[in-house]
Amino acid sequence: MKISARNRLKGTIVEITKGATTAHVRIQIEGSVITASITNESVDELELAVGQEAYAVVKASDVMIATD
């Protein structure tokens, strides 16, 4: 599969927590963990599992910076 998004971060799934309709998938990328909220149906269709390599794909129209 090819995708146009350029912000693809390869990592390893470290946790999948399913709720009533939405799952939180945590992917470890180097020293950081990114959490994605996706549907339970997507978890099942992609056959996601802990320990599997996957990509976090970030597609956003805005990026904000904040400081204290």
From TrEMBL:
It comes from the Bacteria. Transmembrane segments: none annotated. Keywords: Molybdenum. The keyword Transit peptide does not apply. Signal peptide: none annotated. It holds the Pfam family TOBE. The keyword NADP does not apply. Residues 2-67 form the Mop domain. GO terms for biological process: molybdate ion transport. NCBIfam families: Mop (TIGR00638). This is Transporter.
